[in-house]
């Protein structure tokens, strides 16, 4: 055997050893068990779970969630989320807390303004087609900064440099649509219009990963609006 071949073999063994050691340290049940199955909930049931969880949050009776070591070991084998939530990155909008859910239950796609670009769409398609998630919720919220920035672009011809401008651009049509209807609260109306545009886009998907589940009713897309002051999530366009 040549010197270079011997060196390659030595490196391979060195790289594999930590992985083998880590696997050996896991409990046998974790190493031997089958991957998690898909959720048993349908879209309507998943939506009701969210409604119930948010009601508890609003009434200041938070649900107890399981996040102990046993649950973490279960999730090491695979995830079984029952909902895909497209929401804003705003720190005041923590999805699991709003709905009283724990580890491995919500597949969350977050960005400022809760828009859906190619990356977000791919994440949604993956969760629907590969994880069998039955419900997609697109959620905007009160006093959204990204939508407020888009409103300032429309109302004041504001300019935002760099990637911020690109981030806001997809929201501008929603602001224009809301403005054309003469709403008294342009920001709130724009947030809801932005959600509706995204819901409509997802419902009109042409890729098989979304098209077929939506056509058969295996998956459903709805909109939602979160009010910061009272903690309530209102679902619409359901």
UniProtKB/TrEMBL annotation:
Annotated GO biological process: carbon utilization
PROSITE patterns given in the database record: PROK_CO2_ANHYDRASE_1, PROK_CO2_ANHYDRASE_2, TAT
Binding site for Zn(2+): 88, 90, 141, 144
Keywords assigned: Lyase, Metal-binding, Signal, Zinc
Protein name: Carbonic anhydrase
InterPro entries in alphabetical order: Carbonic_anhydrase, Carbonic_anhydrase_CS, Carbonic_anhydrase_sf, TAT_signal
Function: Reversible hydration of carbon dioxide. Catalyzes the reversible hydration of carbon dioxide to form bicarbonate.
Gene3D superfamilies for the chain: Carbonic anhydrase (3.40.1050.10)
Reactions catalysed according to its record: hydrogencarbonate + H(+) = CO2 + H2O
Signal sequence residues: 1-32
Gene Ontology molecular function: any one: zinc ion binding
Entry-linked Pfam families: Pro_CA (PF00484)
EC number from the UniProt entry: 4.2.1.1
């Amino acid at each position: 055997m040549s010197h270079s071949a011997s060196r390659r073999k030595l490196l391979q063994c060195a790289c594999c050893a930590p992985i083998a050691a880590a696997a050996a340290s896991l409990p046998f049940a974790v190493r031997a068990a089958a991957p998690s199955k898909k959720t048993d909930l349908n879209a309507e049931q998943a939506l009701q779970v969210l409604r119930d969880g948010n009601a508890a949050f609003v009434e200041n009776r938070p649900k107890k969630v399981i996040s102990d070591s046993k649950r973490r070991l279960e999730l090491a084998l695979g995830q079984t989320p029952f909902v895909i939530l497209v929401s804003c990155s705003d720190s005041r909008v923590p999805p699991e807390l709003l709905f009283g859910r724990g580890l491995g239950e919500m597949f969350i796609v977050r960005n400022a303004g809760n828009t859906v670009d190619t990356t977000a769409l791919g994440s949604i398609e993956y969760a629907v087609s590969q994880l069998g998630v039955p419900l997609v919720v697109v959620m905007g919220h009160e006093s959204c900064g990204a939508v407020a920035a888009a409103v300032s672009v429309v109302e004041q011809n504001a300019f935002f440099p760099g990637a911020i401008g690109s981030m806001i651009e997809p929201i501008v049509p929603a602001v224009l649509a809301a403005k054309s209807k003469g709403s008294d609260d342009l920001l709130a109306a724009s947030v809801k219009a932005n959600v509706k545009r995204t819901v409509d886009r997802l419902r009109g998907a042409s890729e098989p990963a979304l098209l077929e589940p939506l056509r058969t009713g295996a998956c459903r897309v709805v909109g939602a609006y979160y009010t910061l002051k009272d903690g309530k999530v209102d679902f619409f366009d359901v």
